[in-house]
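Please check this chain.
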Amino acid sequence: MFAAAAFAPLPFVVAVPGLTADVLGSDQGKPVITVSGAPVRDTKGQLRMTTIRATGPSSTMTLPELAGHWFKTDQAVLPREAVYSSGGSDEEIEKHNLEEMATSQSAAAAAALGFLHKDPQDVKVELNLADVGGPSAGLLFSLGIIDKLDGDGSGGDLTGGRNIAGTGTITADGKVGAVGGVALKTQAARRDGASVFLVPRDECADAQAELPEGLQLVPVTSLTDAVNALRALNRGEPAPSC
């Protein structure tokens, strides 16, 4: 009986650091952020959204298989519902994640234009990032729009020319929410050259768990927090820390 239990399929997935994408750049030959109705700046530096890559929702793993992944610092064993909260078939989950991404993009545009006091009837924003689902890029999309339109507000780049990464959902009024998987996302960020990582404040402890050397954590609870922190770094002033 114990042998049978050891090889029974368990409701867990294995996640690893995923891709990152510079929202100030292009994806598949098309700008990630396109703005019409207002002048757009040439930007320097990078704003990298981060992801995790996980085994599929319909995949199964046994206890011996999971044990081989449990203690690796570049992997995480997570409950299936923590990654695929919507449930359903693989196709239904993919559709749900793409719908969440579309909703997140709309909220990101609204938050950025609201921060800049620009009328969304006059300024239109189109966001394009293929093959990425879920809402966790919202904060970085908003920051990218702000950098394209206004920079740091004083003529410079919001990034200060740095490679900035981060994660966090965004609401239309600029509140930043938790996303999960941040310890893996910090590894993806550092792997791809980031020196600063913006993290939802409630996930500071998770982000610190396997923090790569040379990556500065900056906790935020709102879009305003994130902009002010990046402006402070550009002035050589200390930013909030976990």
DSSP finds eight helices and twelve strands in the chain. The longest strand covers residues 12-22. The CA atoms of residues 165 and 233 lie 14 Å apart. The longest helix spans residues 90-115.
